[in-house]
Prepilin type IV endopeptidase peptidase domain-containing protein
Amino acid sequence: MSSVVTLGLGALIAVICVVLAGGKGASWCRSYAQEIEDPRPRHTWLLGTAWQAGLALLASGLTIGWACSLNAPLEGLLAAPVAVALCQAGSVDAVCHRLPNVLLGVAAFPALMSSIVRLVQQPSASAVLTWLGAAALVLVVTTVLAFIGSGMGMGDVKLMGVAGLWLGSLSLLAPLGALMGGFLLAGPVALALMALKRIGRKDPMAFGPYLIAGILLSWALSIS
């Protein structure tokens, strides 16, 4: 793929992501959050049009730019919609402690397409089995964690299911690496907030944004 074509497609995908995320996407997220009564939505400015458009531009630009720097432009073009949808879902979670099924579904479609493209490029039965095994493994692990009181909810389990679909075709351990990254990012933040008395030990904390950061970091490292 020539650099001119890559630049054109990258710009087109970024613009589409920005328009959709900052327009109908942000509007839907605000309506969704307004219907949540417990816990009461906070930091609703995160769902504003300008913020969501800027976040979409940042997410799509970084994913495409990173992949292109590694001479893997197609990987970045396919990853951008996944990253944007996940970031929008993470914004909703930060506001009202919910990961909407609709946004996870939006992320799951390009995530699945991305994995299918990888598998078509290097077809083998072992690659397919690794992909399915990685997706199943992270889903089982997160389900167990959700039921033993780790602080994860079923929305987080579904989120990691999407991560398995996307990252499992890169390596068996990539989805688990994303999960570990989420915990490593959330832990210090939780300790800092408790030290500042912003939250108590038993107060709920939105875990989705940290898992999403872990997912994106795992993707970036896995394609390196």
Notes: The two ends are 19 Å apart (CA to CA). The mean pLDDT is 93. Residues 19 and 221 are 28 Å apart (CA to CA).
